[in-house]
Each structure stands twice: as C-alpha cells, then as structure tokens.
Amino acid sequence: MSEWELLAKWTPKMLEGALLTLELLGLSAIIGLILAVPLGIARASRHWYVRALPYSYIFFFRGTPLLLQLALVYYGLAQFEAVRKGMLWPYLRDPFFCTLLAMSLHTAAYIAEILRGAIHAIPKGEVEAARSLGMSRKQALFFIILPRATRIALPAYSNEVILMLKASAVVYTVTLYDLMGMAKTIAAKNYQYMLFFCYAGLFYLLITLALTLMFRRLERWLRVDACQGR
Length: 230
Known about the structure:
By secondary structure, this protein is mostly helical. Helices cover 80% and strands 0% of the residues.
C-alpha cells in the first residue's frame, strides 16, 4: 500500500483525534479563563495576604510541566482510598475528565499571570478618573479595569491558547486518542512513524493557523493596539 493510500485510509481516524484535541483545547481555555479572572485580580492586589495563595498556585503550575500535573491528577489521586470512595471518583477515573482538569488548572495559572500584568499595565489616570466620577472600587473593577485589561491581555492570551494546543500532545499518555495519540497508534500498526508524525504535524500547523487568524480578527474587532497599555 502506497503512502497516499495509507493517508487516505487513516485520515478519518486522524480527524477524530484532531476533534478530541480541539474539544480539550476549547474547554480548557474557557474553564481556565474563568478560573484565572479571580486569581489574576487577587495577584494584582496591594495586600500581600491576598496575593499569597494565588501566587503559590501560579508558582506551582507554572513551575512544573503539564505532563507531571497530568500524572498527578490521573495516577496520583487514585492512590488515596478517600478519593476512590468519594463522590468524584467516577469522574477522577475518567481520562478525559482528568485531562481536562489538569489542562484547565495549568492554563489558568498562565492566564492569571497574563491578566495580572494587563491590570498593572492600565494607566493609573484611567482608574483615578473612574474613582473621581464616583465609582466604587467594585464598579471601577468591572466597568473600567477588567474590560481594559481584557483588551491588553488578548494578544498574550492568544499565544497561551496556541501553546496549550502544542502542550496537549502529552495527553496520549493517559490513553486518550487525541491527535498525537491517534498518530502514534496508527503508526504502530504499519510502522510508518515518520509519515504519520509528519501528518499529525500538518494538522497542528493548520489548527495553529486557524487560531491565529481567529484571534487576529478578534483583535481587529476589539481594536486592540499593541501599545495601548503604555
């Protein structure tokens, strides 16, 4: 069987793997963003006791690889009897849920730090203007600081999503047939490792291109200026 015939035969399976990769990426990016907002706000606080807990969280997840975190969630938690008898065990023994949890916690740490930097990049005059108009701290946070920080952080957030796409290649280690896992499984059947790993690389490149174009359009729609935080 020629290489083209092999690619044609296994392309549907590769597409299945690509869809699983996109599903994990999309869900983890959304959940991570939701988790990152309070973490980023706390990290930007002037009070050390407010910053301490999110700093510890961010330091751990940014300082250790995703592969280790995935192993701790999927293999490590199962070592505790209390976890195995707990109500969450049906989820924690599921590789998809464990992978989604690990990826979400991992990317939340990076997004929180991006958000912290964006909040600090907001000109102080804008915050002072909001306060002079009679806004409370909460009102200034939700109507001035967070919308402004979102625009500043968008380019860095788009980079983080793309980095998570590439980092997701490790999820095959917990028996998930994502894009990389599917390529490895198919290659093991016909010993065409170079062919299918290059094919998987093409899929990653196409997904990265699509994400780049999508975020570029979003930045134009929001009129994001690279120098707006200066």
